[in-house]
């Protein structure tokens, strides 16, 4: 009953507002990481840029809702049904979690898609004194000693492992994947020589390469990154692997009026064309990948299907 | 950045104040301080405990900064030699401290440890992405926050037990006169070794990414108790029991900055925040950070020195003031403690579920006190459990399932033997008692 009333109110108000929506209160920008995490850093930079480029008439505040790798934040947004002043930053894990965890009941599909903003490429790195000069060297070494080489990475559903699964399938080899909870520990394991390879964000790798501690063998991306003009992509290196994109974008609670969606689409489409955004993207070695709500929905389907297949091949139990 | 580093520092010290006065560990590293600090407060020596904590923090903090300044790069390279087997051994060493922390009954201490280890296992398993003991609650997917358990078991459990036992009587006697509120010369003399121990243990454990200040504080507490001439008094309020963990906690700050500044590897969530702040400011933390940004690095070092001095200057005169808190009658003090606890827990996670958990653990802590179960082993099990399990499984993946990796590597072998030795300590005690009896 209460819900119907709320819905009626929403419909009423949305027709009253007709085509235009303008925020009147501060915007809550929900992220699923604690301070310092990937989405948090992006959100805080976004708040600054939105203000600087005068794209929002009100302030935006970052709200950290960590827990369950995105599950808590997604559920929080789902609870805010119809709320027009709350948006969230999602990543691929918001789609992957519901595949593997019974408790993760809210998927991106239950929220209102707004826009895809970024793709985050990765590179495959080894220690500078490792014998592998190319990815083919590494794969050949793995072929000679199946299961003996090691890769450090995040959880089994992370991109790190997805790249490994794809490469293993394409080459018929096998190596170990060792999960470390923190990015720092993964790098320490590689630099300490305890593992042989890792998939790493280009920006993280940059400083270690400059200091001569790391070498990059290939890029997990469709095209070459500006910072690594001489490093081949997976396809160029001769591996028929289509990288699963690491994505970040914006979602809103379910059941918001259409003009609210249009408003947010407009804001982020404009943001993605500003100079400060382009600089941010270039500084961080990301890829500007704006997509509106309609395309984003299609992207969900593709991504979920691809991930389900990869996870099942990796022996991860999928629940949906 | 400097401000952030200052907050990081200040919070580390601030945590000890509530630990000592109210048995509320503000952050995980202060739990070891609670054990003896709060007992000192109950014995009317809150001022001495606070004073020693401030002095230990100052000395160890300075040692930490000196270490950061003088030996950062070589130490960072050494820390890379540490990997999962070594971490497992370090955690095992930490867990062996249970036999030192436990009260009269070893069985009860071990039971409490097991409960702690079980609690650590709750949540999503990193390796298989399976949910464990989540009972279908999404709030439990990322596990139970350590602070919730610590505050529940220590602070709320204590308040409940005291209300039961004493009713409305004033909780703690506070001696009059300024002199009785500051540490005595004897206290300082007793803590000499603890200062050194805390500083060194804290610093070196801090350098290891993935160990953390909680482990540092427990290990230095354990060492202090193990070498003490009167180990039986630990847990009843001895200054060394405050000086060692507090020192370790603060020296860890300097240590933890080393992998962050020299390798760009954050060793803890707090240093991760500092790292993100550096990036926001346009710096590129990594192996070349110090050589390329010497001004920033030395500015940071200088600010840490200053911060250290400021902490001492601000806190020592305030010790008597803080200690007055305990004069408040219980009907004021206890609701205050409960309030601080609830607000503290809610503010870290903004989750009401955590507040209910807190209430549950409070009740658990009360029952543990009533039934005479020690709470420190539970906390230790919880702190070490997750990291220990991960390290063991990582090691076994590295070695393709062979346990020999744990003893084949010298550092981990040494630490594991130390752990074994500590486990045997109570047996030696028993044997000695039996021998003395036989001689008579």
Q: What this model shows, in words?
A:
The complex is a heterodimer of chains A (320) and B (440). Chain A folds into two domains: 24-119 and 246-313, Bordetella uptake gene, domain 1 (D-Maltodextrin-Binding Protein, domain 2, 3-Layer(aba) Sandwich); 122-220, 3-Layer(aba) Sandwich (D-Maltodextrin-Binding Protein, domain 2), CATH 3.40.190.10. Chain A has eleven helices and eleven strands. Chain A has helices at 2-17, 38-52, 71-79, 93-100, 135-144, 159-171, 183-191, 202-210, 258-271, 275-283, 293-313; strands spanning 27-31, 60-64, 86-91, 112-119, 122-127, 150-153, 176-179, 197-200, 214-220, 247-252, 287-291. The longest helix of chain A is centred in the last third of the chain and has 21 residues, at 293-313. Chain A is globular. Mean pLDDT of chain A is 86; it is low at 5-18. Chain B has one domain (2-435). In chain B, strand 1 and strand 2 form a beta hairpin. In chain B, helix 2 (31-42) packs antiparallel against helix 11 and helix 4 (84-96) packs parallel to helix 19. The chains are: A alpha/beta (320), B mainly alpha (440).
Layout of helices and strands:
The complex is a heterodimer of chains A (320) and B (440).
Chain A: H1 2-17, E1 27-31, H2 38-52, E2 60-64, H3 71-79, E3 86-91, H4 93-100, E4 112-119, E5 122-127, H5 135-144, E6 150-153, H6 159-171, E7 176-179, H7 183-191, E8 197-200, H8 202-210, E9 214-220, E10 247-252, H9 258-271, H10 275-283, E11 287-291, H11 293-313
Parallel strand pairs in A: 1-2, 1-3, 6-7, 6-8
Antiparallel strand pairs in A: 3-10, 4-10, 4-11, 5-8, 5-9
Chain B: H1 2-22, H2 31-42, H3 46-80, H4 84-96, H5 98-101, H6 106-121, E1 123-124, E2 131-132, H7 146-166, H8 185-190, H9 192-207, H10 213-227, H11 240-263, H12 269-280, H13 289-292, H14 294-324, H15 330-349, H16 352-370, H17 376-398, H18 405-408, H19 410-439
Antiparallel strand pairs in B: 1-2
